[in-house]
Amino acid sequence: MSGFPQPPRDVSPDGREIWGWAAALSAERHRVSRIRELQSGMRDLRTQCGSCSFWMTNQCPYERNVNGRKKGPSMKNPVCGKFAMKASAQALLAKLGDELKSLATPLNDGERLS
Q1: Please, what is the angle between helix 16-47 and helix 87-102, to 10°?
Q2: pLDDT tens, position by position, 58-101
Q3: 45: which strand partners?
Q4: Which of 47, 48, 68, 70 is least crowded, fewest Cβ atoms below 10 Å from its Cβ?
Q5: Mean of the pLDDT values across residues 30-40?
Q6: Is residue 112 within 8 Å of residue 24, measured between CB atoms?
Q7: Is 104 exposed, middle or buried (0-12, 13-18, 19+ CB in 10 A)?
Q8: What is the mean pLDDT of residues 23-39?
Q9: What pLDDT shows up at residue 40?
Q10: What is the largest distance, in Å, between two alpha-carbon atoms of the chain?
Q11: Residue 105 neighbours by CB under 8 Å, 6+ apart
Q12: Nearest Cα to 48, choosing from 77, 19, 83, 6?
């Protein structure tokens, strides 16, 4: 998953190889961190109640009335059997998936994460 660069073996007197290595290491670390954020976000969209089209409606089993009072909020609850992902969550999932695909390969030397 990660292609962390190796430190330079030979270093010139001005140390430019160290700075280049540090920049490449930083870019790779940011890439790996973003991949983990995307994977976590995608998992949450698929497994949490907040991305359901029934969330915060009368049809939501988690937000039903209990003794005259609404039960909830249920946003971070696990999905129930009635789960139907809303269109905006599906669009966000596709967008995150596209970004994840673009980050799947390690950065080349000199390439930076924007």
Answers
A1: 150
A2: 888 887 777 767 776 778 889 999 999 999 999 999 999 999 99
A3: none
A4: 68
A5: 95
A6: no
A7: exposed
A8: 94
A9: 96
A10: 77
A11: none
A12: 77
Distance CA 85, CA 83 (A): 6
Tokens of 108: 């080349």
Dihedral-angle region of residue 84 (phi above 0 means left; psi in -120 to 50 means alpha; beta otherwise): beta
Residue of 107 and 60 predicted with greater confidence? 60
Alpha carbons 48 and 93: distance in angstroms, whole number: 13
This prediction has a pTM of 0.74
Task: Please state, in angstroms and rounded to a whole number, the distance separating the CA atoms of residues 15 and 62.
Answer: 60
Name the DSSP letter for residue 1.
-
Q: How far apart are CA 76 and CA 7, in angstroms?
A: 43
Whether 76 contacts 50, CB under 8 Å: yes
